[in-house]
Amino acid sequence: EDQVTQSPEALRLQEGESSSLNCSYTVSGLRGLFWYRQDPGKGPEFLFTLYSAGEEKEKERLKATLTKKESFLHITAPKPEDSATYLCAVRGETSGSRLTFGEGTQLTVNP
Amino acid sequence: GAGVSQSPRYKVAKRGQDVALRCDPISGHVSLFWYQQALGQGPEFLTYFQNEAQLDKSGLPSDRFFAERPEGSVSTLKIQRTQQEDSAVYLCASTRLVVLTDTQYFGPGTRLTVL
Asked: Which of A28, A60, A106, B5 is 20–30 Å from A81 (CA)?
């Protein structure tokens, strides 16, 4: 059974204070690790897909990295508009069609 | 349309009532997924359609939950005899391709509250 654990549950940063969110996973044959952002009252918004260890992707102030056991979402010089819940999800070779999500990290960036 | 749309956005039901939740996927998207998201939790998979065929319904929590996509576009999730534990946000997602690694695009969700 695929498992995803995200840490920390909540993170408060000052504007400009860089940090990282962690996603630890257990999956049989990774077929994709996905990062989403979710704002209150909205559906998850796609950020990145990573497929293999060593892969990195960047978008504005966000950078996602992947190892065989975990993924990090690095946030550089965050702004208040980066405040959201960040969700990590995996699909493995035995997962069929389903994504397995973690519980998310709630990020608050104070001005 | 520009994105996945869902209706209603909010639904309040009395325990024991039946409800129907609608999902309009992005035009031309082949695959459609339903997820259930409890407060403070990540989404949990319910079911998956490829066109009109329901290929995976292993996440449906009980036989009170039923989903359909008769013409391969709009989908409806029906919950019969609602219970308080059914209170959650129900999310719909669609993908352009059949390939299961394709990006899932989510709608805004329907927040169901069962009193």
From this structure: B5
